[in-house]
Each structure stands twice: as structure tokens, then as C-alpha cells.
Design brief:
The protein is 44% helix and 15% strand. By secondary structure, it is α/β, with parallel strands linked by helices. The protein has 2 domains: 3-188 and 373-383, Rossmann fold (3-Layer(aba) Sandwich), CATH 3.40.50; 197-371, Glycogen Phosphorylase B (Rossmann fold). The strands form 2 sheets. It has a 7-stranded parallel beta sheet, with helices on both faces. The chain has a 6-stranded parallel beta sheet with strand order 10-9-8-11-12-13, with helices on both faces. Helix 4 (79-95) crosses helix 5 (118-128), helix 5 packs across helix 6 (147-153) and helix 9 (222-237) packs parallel to helix 14. The mean pLDDT is 95.
Length: 385
């Protein structure tokens, strides 16, 4: 029996790297039995993902396929049918490798929080062939549910949700083949690496920002104004260093763009940017673990803070941030809703974090080991299907 990960993509999103590596550890399988569809094998080799998972290259697009897609989009008005036409080219050769005793792990995490995508296509295709599948470490909110997603969710052999709020949402739709365990990334350990110079200059506040929470790649949105106020607050009222920590480096989602805009705006020698491109997920986790506190937009950056007992604020825009914080008994004001931000809310959250950092750190120390150990129990449930 082999396990296939069609939604791995690549470690340009360090969360994808973390899920694949964590999953490999949990399953305790040789990498020959774990097959991940990869869009950038050279990068994943550098990140050492290939030491955990056998990487299968995604079929590259050629001129003929691009023309075919363009022509089909001109005659087909239904968006989902157009997507399926495209996915068929990208995923068919990978999915056709699965045999009856194999299992697909749909590892996209929050992929069901967005528009209809390849998670739906892959489970629909394999369900028709009678092949088992698990939606692995997922989150999905009430406002994310659509008829297409609902049908797809019912076709999974098992749904492994990474927080209890997702289980509650799915129960409302009579989807009961759901178990809840922490995200696979929680089982990973930090890997020591050289720390940036800022750590030798004082205590460091780590900050990760994405275009999702900022409302785009600019500093003129309501949330961006709150971030601006926070950075000014840190620079004026503390002697802390600020380390901006990019976590997703994909084109169109690159955290380095926002980081560079902030760095250029302030011209402060107390603001620096981590060279995340040269570090893998576990090395970035080590850097986050050395921060006094952490403020993060990307879920797997915040997971690194939680898992190393670093007091953190999650900049949430979907159910995943709120759900993970809730299951760890984190105070409500350590999760800031970037989609509905109130004036001064971010500074208030940071002040709460600063005033209660020892209590929050101790609370995580008391909780995190038992919480993380629960992740391994998914193996028993998986074996039952």
C-alpha cells in the first residue's frame, strides 16, 4: 500500500513542506511508499523534502495544452468545467498510478477555505474508481461551504480536521466521518541554524505578514494601517528589534514583498528581514523559537510559535486560526481578525501579549506536549479505513 499526496505542490510555501514532512513522520513509512506531486523538485530537494517523500513531477504545460485550454475557455462558460479541463491535464498521470489498496491524502490544509479547486477534482476522480482518500489536516468554515464542496466532502473515506471548529461546521451538514487531531506540522522539531544579527542586539519581535491579511501587496488598507501603528508603537515604546519572517515565497503570494515594503518605509536599523529562502521550515521554526514573541499571518508560522511555546498573535482571516488557538486554550485577544479589524486592536493585542508573555509561555508549556502527542493517534484511525 502506498500513499499519494496530489496537493503537495512544493515547499515554496513552507507550510506545504511542513505538512509533507510531518505526515511522513506520523505514518512511519519509507519514502518509497509516500508519493508527492511536486511542481518544483529542485526546490524540494534543497529543502530535503525528498528525504521524507518520493517526489513526482507535475506534468509541465506545453504550447499545445495552453492553446487547448484557451480554446476550451472560449466555448465553455462554466468556470468549474473549465477548471476540470485544466486539472485533467495536470493530475491524470499522477492519479492513474493509484491502485485499489492505495490511499490518497489530500494535504492542502486550508484548500477548502477557498474557491472550488483541485481538492474537489482529485477526490471526485478517485471516488469513481473506488479508491480511498483522506482529507488530511483540513480546515473549513461555514462561509466556505458550497454544493460542490459538500458533495466532495462526502466522498472522502475520512476527514481529519486540525481543529474542533471545523468538526462543528461539518456536523451541521451531517458529515460525521470526521476526526480531530492537531496539524501534522506540530510533530516537527526545530533545526538549529545561524540566527540573524538582530538577536545579538536585543529581544526580537518576530512578525510574519501575507497579502491575504494585508488585503493585497500595498500598505494602504485598513489592516495595513493597523500594522503601521503597531510597528510605530514597537519602535517608539520598546527597545525590541523587529524581524520580518517571510513564510510563503510563491509568486503571487510572496511574503517578501510586504516585508520589503515595510523595511523601505521605516528606514530603521531595528527592522530586519529573515532570509527565509535559504532556510527550510524547521530552521525557520528555530528562529521563531528564539523570538520574545511572534505575530503571524501564515498558519504554519504560528504553529511554529505555539509548538516552541513562543507567545503569539494569530492574524486570522478564516476558521483555522481561531480553531487552533481555541483548542490550545489561547485567549481570544491573541487572535486578530484581519478581515474585520477594529481601530487599535492590533496594538491592544500586542500589549496583552507583552504584559502576559510569561503566563502565555507557561500555559503553552503545560499544554503543548500532550496536545502534540494526540497527533500520532490519527495513525490508528487511518488504519481502520
Amino acid at each position: 500500500m502506498k500513499y499519494y499526496f496530489p496537493i503537495h505542490l512544493n515547499g515554496g510555501n513552507r507550510g506545504c513542506e511542513a505538512i509533507s514532512k510531518g505526515t511522513a513522520l506520523i505514518l512511519k513509512e519509507k519514502k518509497e511508499n509516500l508519493i508527492g506531486l511536486c511542481t518544483n523538485i529542485e526546490l524540494d530537494h534543497r529543502l530535503k523534502v525528498d528525504e521524507f517523500v518520493t517526489l513526482y513531477p507535475m506534468r509541465p504545460r506545453n504550447l499545445i495544452s495552453c492553446i487547448r485550454n484557451k480554446l476550451y475557455s472560449m466555448v465553455e462558460s462554466d468556470e468549474w468545467k473549465r477548471k476540470q479541463f485544466s486539472y485533467r491535464y495536470e493530475y491524470m498521470s499522477f492519479l492513474n498510478q493509484l491502485k485499489e489498496d492505495d490511499i490518497m491524502l489530500s494535504t492542502g490544509g486550508d484548500m477548502m477555505c477557498y474557491r472550488e479547486n483541485q481538492v474537489i477534482y482529485t477526490v471526485n476522480y478517485l471516488y469513481k474508481r473506488g479508491i480511498r482518500s483522506i482529507l488530511w489536516g483540513c480546515s473549513i468554515g461555514e462561509n466556505n461551504i458550497t454544493p460542490l464542496k459538500l458533495k466532495a466532502l462526502k466522498q472522502f473515506s475520512l476527514i481529519y480536521a486540525r481543529e474542533t471548529l471545523t468538526q462543528e461546521v461539518l456536523a451541521n451538514y451531517n458529515i460525521n466521518n470526521v476526526v480531530v487531531y492537531p496539524d501534522p506540522a506540530f510533530v516537527l522539531e526545530p533545526i538549529k541554524c545561524q540566527l540573524p544579527k538582530c538577536f545579538s542586539l536585543g529581544q526580537v519581535v518576530g512578525i510574519n505578514l501575507s497579502n491575504y491579511v494585508m488585503g493585497g501587496f500595498a500598505l494602504n488598507t485598513e489592516f495595513a494601517k493597523e500594522v503601521d501603528d503597531l510597528i510605530k508603537h514597537i519602535l517608539l515604546t520598546t527597545d525590541n528589534q523587529i524581524l520580518l519572517i517571510p513564510h510563503v515565497l510563491w509568486k503571487g503570494q510572496d511574503d517578501r514583498i510586504i516585508s520589503n515594503l515595510i523595511k523601505e518605509k521605516y528606514h530603521s536599523d531595528r527592522i530586519s528581514i529573515l532570509d527565509s529562502n535559504s532556510l527550510n521550515y524547521c530552521q525557520i521554526r528555530f528562529v521563531i523559537s528564539k523570538c520574545r514573541c511572534f505575530i503571524g499571518a501564515r498558519t504554519h508560522s504560528v504553529i511554529s510559535a505555539y509548538s516552541t511555546c513562543t507567545p503569539a498573535i494569530a492574524l486570522g482571516y478564516s476558521i483555522k486560526s481561531k480553531g487552533i488557538a481555541k483548542d490550545l486554550n489561547m485567549p481570544q485577544n491573541t487572535v486578530v481578525n484581519s478581515a474585520n479589524i477594529k481601530k487599535g486592536e492590533l496594538i491592544n493585542a500586542f500589549s496583552f501579549l507583552s504584559n502576559n508573555e510569561n503566563e502565555l509561555r507557561n500555559q503553552l508549556k503545560m499544554k503543548i506536549d500532550k496536545y502534540t502527542k494526540r497527533t500520532w493517534n490519527i495513525l490508528e484511525v487511518k488504519n481502520k479505513i
